[in-house]
Specification:
heterodimer, A: mainly alpha, Helicase, Ruva Protein, domain 3, elongated, B: 184 residues, Glutaredoxin
């Protein structure tokens, strides 16, 4: 194993283990029941930390994220369903708090953007094919003779 | 062939012009303070403030029922002594107090002694003061950080919201006209 392989392997390990290892910094926050804790973590990973905005509340070190983690665990322990917990947070912070936005009229463009990109690309290919100039006519006798001359000299 | 060349010229030009126009609008509105790219639109807009009761900082504190029946528009300002943008905003709050705009303050995740000291030292722009030390009521308001300000009308409905420090421009262009509108 070269040094480079070693570096790649450790990077892969870090990336694979990262999301698990970095969730919740303080073990005292975790629920005693591992099944409930797993549910709370899954819910928290769908919720955006409103302070850092590109992290879930499970990954964020912000104060507000810690408060929300705590509330998610309280509600899970109190017997709320996953949807009820998410709805509770969405009622206060709006759909923006979901890291996976719902599919509705306002988000059609967002969800449709891969299809849109595909359509634009396809259109480009079609237009390109349509405008491709015809292949040039084959050389006539005189031209072929001249080409032979040129290549021989 | 010439239409193709014209297209090759016009399409990128139109795209660049559209992008430039978009950037201009966004940057202009950011400069005016009417658009914040990191701002989260509050779901409270045109809804009643959530039910709460908070202990006072200096006097008795206040509750949602006080806002439901105030009979006049009030600015509710979440702030903290540990928050530099709140300190930056403080002179704007003092200026609004001087012209008679009622502001109710909620000290967020702060120590009572620190908050009281701060108001004694720098001036108290608030008509009423409360403290949300655990920050739990703030979550019901959908608070994402401090400072954050809500314009609440006389019946307790949120009519305007700003996350981030208020500026004198915002007072002139947005807050004053809204205060007049809801003082009917």
């Amino acid at each position: 194993m070269t040094r480079r392989h070693l570096a790649l392997a450790s990077l892969a390990l870090l990336l694979a283990g990262g999301s698990v290892a970095w969730a919740i910094s303080d073990p005292a926050e975790a629920l005693p029941d591992p099944r409930q804790e797993a549910r709370a973590e899954a819910i928290g990973r769908q919720l955006r930390c409103l302070v850092c905005q590109n992290e879930s509340i499970e990954d964020s070190g912000a104060d507000l994220a810690r408060d929300l983690r705590h509330i998610v665990r309280q509600r899970v322990a109190a017997g709320d369903s996953d949807a009820q917990v998410v709805d509770w947070v969405v009622a206060r912070y709006g759909d923006f708090v979901r890291l996976r936005p719902p599919f509705e009229w306002q988000t059609v463009l967002l969800w449709g953007s891969p299809l849109l990109a595909l359509a634009v690309g396809g259109l480009g290919v079609l237009v390109h094919r349509h405008y491709r100039p015809a292949p040039p006519a084959p050389l006539n006798e005189a031209e072929q003779a001249r080409l032979r001359d040129l290549m021989e000299t | 062939m010439s239409t193709r060349r014209a297209l090759l010229f016009a399409v990128p030009l139109a795209a660049a012009a559209a992008a430039g126009g978009g950037f201009y609008i966004v940057l202009h509105r950011m400069q005016q303070g009417t658009f914040d790219p990191r701002g989260v639109p509050t779901v409270l807009l045109n809804k009643r403030v959530p039910g709460f009761r908070l202990p006072g900082l200096i006097d008795a504190g206040f509750a949602s029922t006080d806002l439901f029946a105030s009979g006049r528009p009030i600015l509710v300002n979440f702030w903290a002594t540990w928050c530099p943008p709140c300190i930056e905003e403080h002179p704007v709050l003092m200026a609004m107090q001087a012209e008679g705009i009622p502001i109710w303050g909620i000290a967020y995740k702060d120590k009572r002694s620190a908050a009281v000291d701060y108001l004694e030292r720098n001036g108290n722009p608030y008509a009423r003061n409360a403290i949300d030390a655990p920050g739990r009521v703030a979550i019901d308001w959908g608070l994402t950080g401090v400072p954050e300000t809500f314009l609440v009308d006389g019946d307790g409905f949120v009519r305007w919201h700003m996350s981030g420090p208020l500026t004198l421009d915002m007072v002139h262009q947005q807050i004053r006209p809204l205060m007049r509108k809801y003082t009917a």
